[in-house]
UniProtKB/TrEMBL annotation:
InterPro entries: CheY-like_superfamily, Sig_transdc_resp-reg_C-effctor, Sig_transdc_resp-reg_receiver, Tscrpt_reg_LuxR_C, WH-like_DNA-bd_sf
DNA-binding is among the record's keywords: yes
Protein name: Transcriptional regulatory protein FixJ
One Pfam family linked to the record: Response_reg
Underlying gene: fixJ_1
């Protein structure tokens, strides 16, 4: 039934939250993106997209080029492809971790390298992105790294509550599979652990992504890492 004339009420649209410090270039503190990607076309397009966001970008083709160039601490984030000619991204990340490298590291991972990227996060990497890298995802990751580097207070209560609700929708088996994913295991390795087929594991993972409302595996892992970190506080 339609409401009576004169009694129609309209909800006021919610005001968009004010731009964050990172989203306001004039207020943003110095922050450089160090981009290491061996594919020239991908590197050029990502650099151009980041520069459109008023970010300083220093780009490199190899891990060794970056390692030789970075000599004094400059506020920023290292965006690092896992597979690189010569020294791999994982090898560079491990080397930098031993030297107490002060910048957050965001790994770029192909689908087959996701377990490796997860393990890199467990060893100190800040985040990872899946290929093909979407510009919005990259900018969001840089923004998170900015907040982390400058210790910007970010209210994550709503996001954590949503993650908890999603986790509660998982079955016991789905939660078990998710725990293995977060541990950095591939679908084949999870199948061996649970003595089921890889196809069964992939079906579980598809349902997990749906219930968790995850855009991709990187988003799923990030939600779980953030939730586990909050639980430990």
């Amino acid at each position: 039934m339609l409401p009576k004339k004169g009694r129609i009420t309209r909800r006021k649209p919610k005001k968009a939250p004010p731009p964050t410090e990172f989203e306001s270039p004039r207020k943003r503190r110095d922050f450089t993106v160090f981009l290491v990607e061996d594919d020239q076309g991908i590197r050029a397009s990502l650099k151009e997209a980041l520069e459109e966001e008023k970010l300083q970008v220093n780009d490199y083709m190899t891990a060794m080029e970056f390692y030789r160039d970075y000599r004094e601490v400059v506020p920023g984030v290292l965006v690092l492809d896992i597979r690189l000619p010569g020294m791999s991204g994982i090898e560079l990340q491990e080397k930098l971790a031993e030297e107490e490298f002060p910048l957050p590291v965001v790994m770029i991972s192909g689908h087959a390298d996701v377990p490796m990227a997860v393990r890199a996060m467990k060893n100190g990497a800040f985040d990872f992105l899946c290929k093909p890298v979407k510009v919005d995802d990259l900018v969001a990751a840089v923004g998170r790294a900015y907040d982390h580097y400058y210790d910007v207070d970010v209210d994550m209560d709503d996001e954590l509550d949503a993650t908890e609700d999603s986790l509660n929708r998982l079955t016991g088996r789905e939660r078990e599979v998710l725990d293995h994913v977060v541990d950095g295991l591939s679908s084949r390795e999870i199948a061996e652990e649970l003595t089921v087929s890889t196809k069964t594991v992939e079906a579980h993972r598809a349902r997990i992504n749906d219930k968790m409302r995850a855009d991709n595996v990187a988003h799923l892992i990030r939600m779980c890492f953030n939730f586990n970190a909050a639980e430990e506080v």
